[in-house]
Amino acid sequence: MLRSLFAIVGVLLLATMLAVQGGKESWNFDTDIPGTIAKGFTNEVGEWKVVTDRNAPSQPNVLAQLGKNSGSTFNVTLLGDTNYKDLEISVQMKAVVGKEDQGGGLVWRAKDAKNYYVARYNPLEDNYRLYKVEKGRRSQLKGVDIKHTEGWHTLRASMKGKLIQCYYDGQKYLEAKDNTFSGAGKIGLWTKADAQAHFDDLMITGQ
Questions:
Q1: Residues 47-82 as b or e (16 or more Cβ within 10 Å = b)
Q2: 139-188, pLDDT tens digit by residue?
Q3: Residue ranges making up the domain that contains 123
Q4: Residue 199 lies inside a defined structural domain of this protein
Q5: Which residues, including other chains, have CB under 8 Å from residue 55's CB and lie 6 or more apart?
Q6: CA distances from 149 to 7, 12, 31, 146 (A)
Q7: Number of domains making up the chain
Q8: Is 18 contained in some domain?
């Protein structure tokens, strides 16, 4: 009898955990304190801080990458308590400045700051690319040219099993299959080198 009770409790706990992970989560940074890292985010590489942006999609705050690194430095912030496998993730992004690189992107199925998938847009190169970063080394899976326009743009990526699809302002541009990171992982945001960018309305649906 007691064993059966424990089994039932275990099933209920598992169902609750799956229900939470299967829901939607979003972050608009408006209750975070400017000048600090957003709650729940890790400052892995770069200088990630909440700042005020009067033109933000949801005012007043955004999460910004302010560091001025160089070369192949990947600036990464991860959401420490996330753990998603199959998902759809999106964010509003605005390129601010950068001589080597600009823009930024979305990170998912991250094991840590050196192992993850990333879909990023670079206004300096007018391209949108899907990469995997494995042990800190980046490999391109797909890429496409997109002419840059100023202001805020929506980046969205979905992954189910091996299939990855990436969207820019609502239109699908990239599709690839890869199984390097087959398990669940953290989500996050990304820029490269001296690319300073603002991010707002990060949203995820998945499990």
A1: ebbbbebeebeeeebbbbbbbbbeeebbbbbbbeeb
A2: 999 999 999 999 999 999 999 999 999 999 999 999 999 999 999 999 99
A3: 26-206
A4: yes
A5: 94, 151, 152
A6: 56, 49, 29, 9
A7: 1
A8: no
Q: To the nearest 10°, the Cα dihedral for 79, 132, 61, 45? A: 70
Is residue 84 within 8 A of residue 21, CB to CB? The reply is yes
What are the backbone angles phi and psi of residue 178, rounded to the nearest 5°?
-160, 145
CATH of the domain at 71: 2.60.120.560
Overall pTM surpassing 0.90 (yes/no):
no
Largest CA distance in the chain: 68
- Rounded (5°) CA angle 199-171-160: 80
Residue 73 lies in a domain: yes
Q: Residue 76 domain-assigned?
A: yes
Spatial separation of the C-alpha atoms in residues 83 and 164, rounded to whole Å? 17
Task: Report helix, strand or coil for 19.
Answer: helix
